Amino acid sequence: MPQPWSAPVAPGPVSATVTIPGSKSLTNRALVLAALSTRPSTLTGALISRDSDLMIAAWHALGVPMTVEGTTITVGTNDGFHGPAEIDCGLAGTVMRFVPPAAVLADGQVRFDGDPRARERPMGTILEALRALGAVVEGDALPFTLVGTGGIAGGTVTIDASASSQFVSGLLLSGARYDKGLTIHHVGKPVPSMPHIDMTVEMVRAAGVAVDDEEPNTWRIEPGPVGAVDWVIEPDLSNATPFLAAAAVTGGEVTVTGWPSKTTQPGDAIRDILAQMGAEVTLVDGSLTVRGSDKLSGVDIDMRDVGELTPTVAALAALADSPSVLRGIAHLRGHETDRLAALAAEITTVGGDATETEDGLAIRPAKLHGGLWRAYADHRMATAGAIIGLVVPGVSVDDIATTAKTLPDFPAMWADLLGGAR
Ligand SMILES: O=C(O)C1=C[C@@H](OP(=O)(O)O)[C@@H](O)[C@H](O)C1
Ligand SMILES: C=C(OP(=O)(O)O)C(=O)O
């Protein structure tokens, strides 16, 4: 383990304009759809990070040519997916849930594994679904093997997707290539992260596939080809949130460029959350500006749709002057780490008052102090520690390098942010 990273304290209100790299969720969906298409596609403004590198390596292993130049990825043609192949999912939910539904189309064995924590992340639902749709699957969690025969029947499947929206998204990305197409019924507690499913539906449609999502908890995909698209990837709005939070906690001003006027990214919800907490938020001509005030209020908020934002919002809540309750996020226990346990523990380590509830976190105002903030190999835990460290001297993060999962330049970008502090 490298030396802990001393989180820089803001010398005053931060003032910066930040350009955020491409969205993980859009990049990794576009790569799957490009691989499933028989004609070449390009991605511009793509994310280049550990999660997208793992996705690209997965397609290389299956015989799909992809080349990266700067933030442009060119995906060449393929004559189907070929095994035997070994795929490393790292800790990427998008690789472990999006690649197997496509890899069942391969003509040989495909073995999947990942980081130690990846072996604990929920996978059973999607592997059972693939079995029910005609695939041969050995195992119920990472590591597992698909025994491909070049195609699967598809048809109708009923799943419980309450542990992750990625079960639905993964199946939807590939369903058109199944002989009978695909119908998914969800039965169980509500599906989290619905905007991410909307993102999938929108992108699958953009690739020319007919998707019917009229009926709640049901998605129907007609069998057919997946078209080639030249994707323009939006900035990652979830990765923008620590930078915007920096304005809110220091009473400064941060502008993020390239903010889309319409998007399926759940990170867009940060505008409303920061406004509720007392910041001034304006979106003008694609530039989102957050101005912090001298007051940061707590929030009571259902985060089920936007669970990915929880570490940032929890860090803000720990610095707020009134209590917060973050609800609807029991599924975060299956993320990169158990995020509810991790946030409660680390906020407590720096003197805060945070407890887990059945489906979220309760955070009350407290005077914070320095301490070693553990990241648990979770990029968003690391950036949450950095937010608190802006205004609490003596916070260090044990593994800032873990931000490479989706934002390899985080430490340098954070230093630049502070370079403009008054
Ligand atoms: O499909 C996606 O790109 C994602 C879906 C969400 O997963 P869950 O539904 O498992 O929370 C989100 O948290 C994750 O960061 C990215
Ligand atoms: C939950 C997350 O990632 P993953 O795609 O690995 O599920 C996340 O980035 O917050």
TrEMBL record:
Pathway: Metabolic intermediate biosynthesis; chorismate biosynthesis; chorismate from D-erythrose 4-phosphate and phosphoenolpyruvate: step 6/7. Pfam families: EPSP_synthase (PF00275). The active site is at residue 308. Residues 11-412 form the Enolpyruvate transferase domain. Phosphoenolpyruvate binds at residues 24, 93, 121, 166, 339, 380, 405. Its EC number is 2.5.1.19. It is an enzyme of class 2 (transferase). Its main location: cytoplasm. Keywords: Amino-acid biosynthesis, Aromatic amino acid biosynthesis, Cytoplasm, Transferase. PROSITE patterns: EPSP_SYNTHASE_1, EPSP_SYNTHASE_2. It is found in: Cytoplasm. One of its GO terms (cellular component) is cytoplasm. It catalyses: 3-phosphoshikimate + phosphoenolpyruvate = 5-O-(1-carboxyvinyl)-3-phosphoshikimate + phosphate. InterPro entries: Enolpyruvate_Tfrase_dom, Enolpyruvate_Tfrase_sf, EPSP_synthase, EPSP_synthase_CS, RNA3'P_cycl/enolpyr_Trfase_a/b. One of its GO terms (molecular function) is 3-phosphoshikimate 1-carboxyvinyltransferase activity. CDD domains: EPSP_synthase (cd01556). GO terms for biological process: amino acid biosynthetic process; aromatic amino acid family biosynthetic process; chorismate biosynthetic process. 3-phosphoshikimate binds at residues 24-25, 29, 164-166, 193, 308, 335. Belongs to the EPSP synthase family. Catalyzes the transfer of the enolpyruvyl moiety of phosphoenolpyruvate (PEP) to the 5-hydroxyl of shikimate-3-phosphate (S3P) to produce enolpyruvyl shikimate-3-phosphate and inorganic phosphate. Monomer. This is 3-phosphoshikimate 1-carboxyvinyltransferase. It comes from Actinokineospora terrae. The gene is aroA.
